[in-house]
Design goal:
Elements: E1 6-11, H1 14-28, E2 32-35, H2 39-51, E3 55-58, H3 64-73, E4 76-80, E5 83-85, E6 90-95, H4 98-105, E7 109-115, E8 119-120, H5 123-137, E9 142-146, E10 151-152, E11 160-161, E12 168-174
Parallel strand pairs: 1-12, 2-3, 2-4, 4-7, 5-8, 7-12
Antiparallel strand pairs: 5-6, 6-9, 10-11
Helix pairs in contact: 1-2
Length: 175
C-alpha cells in the first residue's frame, strides 16, 4: 500500500492541538507557521508565540502583503475545516479569502483542525452544505476538497508527493 503522508490524531481541546502543532514544528525544525483567520485557529496564536521562538503569522497580525510573504516562506500552515467526510477522509474548506486558501496549499505541511461537530458520514451528506456554500458565496468563494497530501504519477509513472500542495497532511479531530 502506498503512503499518502496523511496523519490523523484525536485531540481533546485547542490547547492539545496547539501542543501538537508546536511539537510538529520543533520536529520539522520549522521557523514559520501561518494560521488562517478562523477564530478556532487563532486560539493557537498566543500559545505558539509565547511558548516557542516560531514566527507565527495570520492575516489579522500582518498586512496582506506581509502575510502573503509569510505564507510563501512558511513550513507549516494551520486551518480549520468547514466539514469532514468520514467515509472518504475528505476535508471540505470554503473561503472567500485567497490568502486563507494559500495557507492550506503553499507550506510543506498542512495541519487541519476538525471540530467533531463538523464530521459527516458521506459526500452525499455533505452535498447540502456544498450547495448552500456555492449559492451563498455567489461565485466569490473557493471550495476545496482535500483527501490526502498532493501527489501525482504523471512523470514516468513515479509517484511524487507535494507537487502542487503540501507534502504532508495532519488532521486533528477536536473534541
Amino acid at each position: 500500500m502506498m503512503s499518502v503522508n496523511g496523519f490523523f490524531k484525536g485531540v481533546a481541546d485547542v490547547e492539545r492541538a496547539s501542543d501538537y502543532v508546536k511539537n510538529l514544528a520543533l520536529e520539522r525544525k520549522a521557523k514559520r507557521v501561518v494560521l488562517t483567520d478562523e477564530p478556532l485557529v487563532l486560539d493557537l496564536f498566543d500559545k505558539l508565540t509565547m511558548e516557542t521562538s516560531l514566527d507565527v503569522a495570520s492575516g489579522s497580525t500582518r498586512s496582506r502583503e506581509e502575510f502573503f510573504e509569510s505564507i510563501r516562506s512558511a513550513q507549516i500552515g494551520v486551518s480549520s475545516v468547514n466539514l469532514a467526510v468520514a467515509d472518504t477522509g475528505t476535508l471540505i474548506i470554503s473561503t472567500s479569502d485567497e490568502l486563507n486558501r494559500l495557507v492550506t496549499a503553499l507550506p510543506e505541511v498542512h495541519v487541519a483542525i476538525v471540530p467533531s461537530s463538523k464530521l459527516v458520514f458521506s459526500l452525499e451528506d455533505a452535498g447540502k452544505y456544498l450547495s448552500q456554500e456555492t449559492t451563498k458565496a455567489n461565485g466569490s468563494a473557493t471550495v476545496s476538497l482535500i483527501s490526502s497530501s498532493s501527489r501525482t504519477s504523471d512523470i514516468g509513472g513515479m509517484v511524487i508527493l507535494g507537487v502542487h500542495g503540501p507534502k504532508e497532511l495532519h488532521v486533528l479531530l477536536l473534541g
